[in-house]
Amino acid sequence: MEPREIRPGVYFVGAIDWDRRLFDALIPLPDGTSYNSYLIKGSEKTALIDAVDPAMQAVLINHLSEFGVKNIDYVVANHAEQDHSGTIPLVLGEYPGAKVVTNPKCKDMLIDLLMIPEERFITVSDKEAISLGGSTLEFIYTPWVHWPETMSTYLREEKILFSCDFFGSHLATTDLYVTDEGQVIEAAKRYYAEIMMPYRTSIEKNLVKLKDYAIDIIATSHGPIYDKPASITKAYHSWVFDAPKNIVVLPYISMHSSTRKMVEYFVEALVQRGVTVKQFDLAVTDIGKLAMALVEAATIVIGTPTVLAGAHPNVVSAVFLTNALRPKLRFASVIGSYGWGGRTIEQLVGMMSNLKIEILEPVLSKGFPKEADFAALDNLAATIVEKHKENNFT
Ligand code: FEO
Fold this sequence. Notes:
binds MU-OXO-diiron; six-stranded parallel sheet; seven-stranded mixed sheet; about 400 residues; elongated
């Protein structure tokens, strides 16, 4: 594919990865992804913004070669993670005069991760700019949009923000720009939930910082480019700043139907009381969908049987992930069953120490649930409704 022009002198030279289905050996990618790399030609200098995943290095090098790029002066590294930086050593080999432009923290990480020689770097401070001749790149520190060293690059003359992971979406598409806004915002929400949500406080500060910039285009390093950036900035604003909603997320496992019966009864009890429920059978669920549900939910109720004196391992994994993602949750509880004993409640509550939550009275049935257990589930549903109302979660 020929490099595609975004604005005069600004080109997409990245790679689309249609077939990747897992990121970090953890995150499902149902729609593939892309590694967006951009070439900017000024009247005096040429810069490459981010590289691509090493698996796609041939695509980037071919783009540069087909485009007749004889010289690259600057390789801007907005982020040290290998899906953007992994091909930088190869680019430096192909273009011996090129220097890596990044912040000191990212420089240290790139030396650690990729063994790039120190003399190949130029470090920049927050809001420092370099000129390519008629095109000016300003580097804006945007820490924790994914790692601590992340930054964005702003092309002043064209008002383009190259934000790397920030605002990104794992979506393989031949569309250079967003065409199906609903599809892209959904993919970006998945991305936010899995990658950005743990750093919500930092994202908040970065969104405020970017208000100082007029931005016509957001060119991320995953997914299509936003030529109407209000759609994604508005969505991020809502995910980060809005109060949680009147939603219960209910991840569960059932081995012999006792917990399933409780889940079914409890979901009905909540729905009858006007609460939206998002239910996930962890034996088959896509954890990305669970993460997305956590973006706006006020409450999580975990359903589990008792296995070897504790929660089912799939439940343990989901609760570990929930705690690590630090969603806006305000309340939590546990429902489920046991045969002869166990420490399921203490185990699961102990695993949610990152969350600022109130634990609501759990309901565990001995064996198959009975009348008293269903009554306790009704009480829990009524308590959740009351708590959501008290906090105006609608
Ligand atoms: Fe797309 Fe954090 O790398």
